[in-house]
């Protein structure tokens, strides 16, 4: 039996007005190449970088949220390597003294969170390569996890939770498709031996392989699954896993060799001489108390509140919090409701009928619709019809329901003729019901609801149907 060990390295571009060390605009939506550049981010001789204060604050807030240790002292380092996307011949990053150490998120321990500058963007064709320096120097968060992840599913869940946290804080849009969030997975497998009676752990890990080019959460999961199988098969056949960097081929759904992995010594780190050392404990706005006070409600706390106070299902609470707009809308609806049962109804309507466009309906009118349904003024079909009209045209659900004849009536005799008509048309269903097939009753209720144009009470229609069939 082979046991996988997985660690993630995640980069996210930060939302700041300017780049990390200069005044060039940080605009990820700029399509014209090489317009957001200046002598600093183009590494002209004699230029000096200046630290972006807001970028530092972003990282410290993330560190506070995950329960990490914030540095009292930090500094930047030069990470040397030569490639056209790094005009200086080195990247300004952090090595010995990151801004944040430790912490955890979604049950995964974090090693460190630090700041660095992004590289330029390269595009290649068969006869030439082009470099766009708009991205060069954009503030970049790097988060490294401990090698404690045991499955592709767990890795995907962590990455999704981190994206949600970044968006909740306004730290980053973190769109993988646009390269604003980039995930690298370190994967190894080792033969798992049953723990001895002396020790309940088995710390042995295999040779680490890094996977790059992962531009979706699904790609992260599939690449990890593939690499676990590849390494396991290689070992079982007598081969040896080598430390290397591999890419992910989305079309072939397989990893491929890119280069042999460098070690930290290859980058020749040393402290950046053109930037000051930072003594963060001396800066009041970076105190732990100030940072904690600046944090919005964390996604996991919001989910816990929904599940605890409102008795919302776990799966529904997860779905609602996945969308910042949807969760903000739901929080405005909650005070307008009068019971946890109404909150459950609201969650169901939000997820099934309003998930992609919660802003199209006012929270007050949406809450009124929920109350009308809970009070049986509207049937399920009627409520969905009214909500569809509210999305398209806006308006008060009570007025819409009255104008469209959707107010649910509890007068049985009004709908008896509609039920009789359905039973005449649905002779096969009637025969099946009389032959003992009870499940067909729901089908007849649905048909009767449609005939009553959503204004019939389901329990009342069921009673009418059974009465008519009993004659």
Automatic annotation (TrEMBL):
Residues 328-469 form the Asn/Gln amidotransferase domain. One of its GO terms (biological process) is translation. HAMAP family: GatB. This is Aspartyl/glutamyl-tRNA(Asn/Gln) amidotransferase subunit B. PROSITE patterns: GATB. Its EC number is 6.3.5.-. GO terms for molecular function: asparaginyl-tRNA synthase (glutamine-hydrolyzing) activity; ATP binding; glutaminyl-tRNA synthase (glutamine-hydrolyzing) activity. Allows the formation of correctly charged Asn-tRNA(Asn) or Gln-tRNA(Gln) through the transamidation of misacylated Asp-tRNA(Asn) or Glu-tRNA(Gln) in organisms which lack either or both of asparaginyl-tRNA or glutaminyl-tRNA synthetases. The reaction takes place in the presence of glutamine and ATP through an activated phospho-Asp-tRNA(Asn) or phospho-Glu-tRNA(Gln). It catalyses: L-aspartyl-tRNA(Asn) + L-glutamine + ATP + H2O = L-asparaginyl-tRNA(Asn) + L-glutamate + ADP + phosphate + 2 H(+); L-glutamyl-tRNA(Gln) + L-glutamine + ATP + H2O = L-glutaminyl-tRNA(Gln) + L-glutamate + ADP + phosphate + H(+). It comes from the Bacteria. Belongs to the GatB/GatE family. GatB subfamily. SMART domains: GatB_Yqey. Keywords: ATP-binding, Ligase, Nucleotide-binding, Protein biosynthesis. Heterotrimer of A, B and C subunits. NCBIfam families: gatB, PRK05477.1-2, PRK05477.1-4. InterPro entries: Asn/Gln-tRNA_amidoTrfase_suB/E (IPR017959), Asn/Gln-tRNA_Trfase_suB/E_cat (IPR006075), Asn/Gln_amidotransferase (IPR018027), Asn/Gln_tRNA_amidoTrase-B-like (IPR003789), GatB (IPR004413), GatB_Yqey_C_2 (IPR023168), Gln-tRNA_amidoTrfase_suB_CS (IPR017958), Gln_synth/guanido_kin_cat_dom (IPR014746). It holds the Pfam family GatB_N.
């Amino acid at each position: 039996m082979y046991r996988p060990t997985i660690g993630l390295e995640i980069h996210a571009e930060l939302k700041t007005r300017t780049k990390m060390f200069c005044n060039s605009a940080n605009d990820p939506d700029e399509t014209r190449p090489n317009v957001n550049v200046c002598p600093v981010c183009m590494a002209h001789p004699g230029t000096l970088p200046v630290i972006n204060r807001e970028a530092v604050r972003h990282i410290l807030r993330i560190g506070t949220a995950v329960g990490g240790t914030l540095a009292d002292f930090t500094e930047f380092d030069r990470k040397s390597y030569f490639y056209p996307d790094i005009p200086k011949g080195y990247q300004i990053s952090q090595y010995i003294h990151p801004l944040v150490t430790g912490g955890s998120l979604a049950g995964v321990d974090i090693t460190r969170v630090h700041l660095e500058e992004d590289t330029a963007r390269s595009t290649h064709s068969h006869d030439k390569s082009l470099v766009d320096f708009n991205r060069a120097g954009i503030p970049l968060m790097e988060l490294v996890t401990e090698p404690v992840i045991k499955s592709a599913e767990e890795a995907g869940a962590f990455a999704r939770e981190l994206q949600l946290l970044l968006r909740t804080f306004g730290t980053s849009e973190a769109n993988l498709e646009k390269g604003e969030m980039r995930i690298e997975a370190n994967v190894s497998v080792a033969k798992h031996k049953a723990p001895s009676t002396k020790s309940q752990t088995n710390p042995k890990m295999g040779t680490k392989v890094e996977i790059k080019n992962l531009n979706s959460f699904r790609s992260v999961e599939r690449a990890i699954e593939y690499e676990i199988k590849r390494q396991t098969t290689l070992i079982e056949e007598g081969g040896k896993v080598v430390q290397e960097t591999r890419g992910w081929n989305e079309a072939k759904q397989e990893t491929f060799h890119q280069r042999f992995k460098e070690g930290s010594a290859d980058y020749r780190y040393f402290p950046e001489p053109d930037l000051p050392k930072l003594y963060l404990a001396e800066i009041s706005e970076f105190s732990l108390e100030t940072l904690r006070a600046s944090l919005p409600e964390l996604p996991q706390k919001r989910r816990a509140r929904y599940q605890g106070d409102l008795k919302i299902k776990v799966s529904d609470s997860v779905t609602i919090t996945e969308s910042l707009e949807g969760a903000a809308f739901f929080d405005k609806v909650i005070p307008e409701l009068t019971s946890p049962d109404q909150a459950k109804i609201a969650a169901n309507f939000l997820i099934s009928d309003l998930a992609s466009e919660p802003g199209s309906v006012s929270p007050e009118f949406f809450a009124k619709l929920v109350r009308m349904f809970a009070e049986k003024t509207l049937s399920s079909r009627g409520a969905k019809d009214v909500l569809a009209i509210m999305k398209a045209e806006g308006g008060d659900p009570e007025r819409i329901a009255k104008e469209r004849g959707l107010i649910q009536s509890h007068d049985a005799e009004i709908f008896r003729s509609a039920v009789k008509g359905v039973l005449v048309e649905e002779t096969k269903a009637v025969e099946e019901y009389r032959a003992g097939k009870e499940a067909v009753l729901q089908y007849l209720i649905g048909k009767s609801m449609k005939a009553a144009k959503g204004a019939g009470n389901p329990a009342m229609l069921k009673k009418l149907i059974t009465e008519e069939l009993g004659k």
